[in-house]
Design goal:
It comes from Nocardioides daeguensis. Residues 37-186 form the N-acetyltransferase domain. InterPro entries: Acyl_CoA_acyltransferase, GNAT_dom, N-acetyltransferase. The structure is a single chain. With 190 residues, the protein is of the alpha+beta class. The chain has a domain at 9-137: Gcn5-related N-acetyltransferase (GNAT) (Aminopeptidase). It has helices at 24-31, 34-37, 47-59, 116-131, 146-154, 184-189; strands spanning 9-10, 15-18, 69-76, 79-91, 98-107, 136-141, 158-168, 174-183. It contains six helices and eight strands; from the N terminus they run E-E-H-H-H-E-E-E-H-E-H-E-E-H. The two termini are 30 Å apart. Helix 1 (24-31) crosses helix 3. An eight-stranded mixed beta sheet has the order 1-2-3-4-5-6-8-7, sandwiched between helices. Strand 7 and strand 8 (174-183) form a beta hairpin. Coenzyme A is lined by residues 36, 39-40, 105-107, 112-118, 141, 145, 147-148, 150-151.
Length: 190
């Protein structure tokens, strides 16, 4: 078992903390927007979908093994502006700690364009490499998701791959995937 991370994190303008049940209204508002969920692995959420997502986010406080994740609510002046995820995807061997983490982010459109996602993601990257023994962080996204690709680049990730038609969309079509990566030594050098 890995210890729970030291939270909350505070940045210049934001607080990053675990998700609580009362975040449901704010998270539900942007996750019900089909424009927000267009490139996410879930459709715009109805009440049932939101209840399931909230249950998973609230429980995601102390990931330890591959498949588990840390979910963070991001607030600015006590208003929830978005949420972040760090999911462990791999490790060298059965008994080794996780070595690879995948980043994810969803921010409310009314708080876009102010650098909040960038500021929060940088804090999560720092936490990932300081608190966990990770070797590599990565992000996978639809290459048409320009805002997310720009965010990856702003936090120092490298575009490493573009795989073709490897993601099954909900409507049965296939989408490409862009893979971004950041190695521990690159983070340390920066
Ligand atoms: C991906 C997502 C989080 C990016 O949001 P964003 O608002 O573009 O990102 P930021 O909050 O970091 O804001 C950056 C923008 O604000 C501008 N900005 C203003 N002040 C800034 C500051 N102090 N610091 C950094 N950027 C600032 C930047 O120039 C940038 O604009 P640009 O892209 O036009 O150059 C958002 O589009 C989103 O939630 N999308 C839906 C969910 C989704 O697709 N998630 C990813 C799935 S892979």
């Amino acid at each position: 078992m890995l210890p729970a991370p030291p939270l909350p994190l505070t940045t210049e303008r934001l607080v990053l903390r675990t998700v609580v049940a009362s975040d449901s209204t704010a998270i539900g508002a942007y996750c019900a927007d089909p424009e927000v969920t267009r490139y996410l692995p879930f459709p715009a959420l109805d009440a049932e979908g939101l209840a399931g997502r909230m249950q998973r986010l609230v429980a995601a406080t102390a990931p330890s093994v591959p498949g588990e994740f840390l979910a963070l609510a991001v607030t600015h002046d006590d208003v929830l502006v978005g949420d972040l995820m760090l999911r462990f995807t791999d490790r060298h061997g059965e008994t080794d700690p996780p070595a690879i983490g995948e980043l994810g982010w969803v921010f409310a459109p009314e708080h876009a364009g102010r650098g909040f996602a960038t500021e929060a993601a940088r804090a999560l990257v720092d936490l990932a490499f300081t608190h966990y023994p990770l070797h590599r962080l990565m992000a996978r996204l639809d290459p048409r998701n320009v805002a997310s690709a720009r965010l990856c680049e702003r936090i120092g990730m490298t575009r490493e791959a573009h795989t073709r038609e490897d993601y099954a969309e909900r409507d049965g079509s296939w989408s490409d995937t862009a893979v971004y990566g950041l190695l521990r030594r690159e983070w340390a050098a920066a």
